[in-house]
Amino acid sequence: MGDNSQVAIFVPLSIMMVVATLNGFIQEASAAGECGKNQISSAFASLSDCLGAGRDPKAKVPPACCSEVSKLIQIDPRCLCAVLLSPEAKEAQIIPAAAISIPKRCNIKNAGNECGSE
Description:
The protein has 118 residues and is mostly helical.
């Protein structure tokens, strides 16, 4: 009976560990949105001209920023949201509401609201 009790404890613990591990992978993938982590880092670096506009919702958006945002929207609009709300953006003190308003402030017509209510 001793062997059965060890199995009865081991199996549920193993399942819980697998579920916890998978949950971590799912959350990390979800945080990256539609982009991979490398793509987010690269795209964030290309949006360096947008830092001022991302920190101040009333700041004028530089033409170079609008150009880069437009390019990223053409590639994958959901990726833009992932970049603007990424850990890199947070570390750079980007204000999410200011960042997601950049396409509108650039008068980019084909920009939807991929970031939802975030």
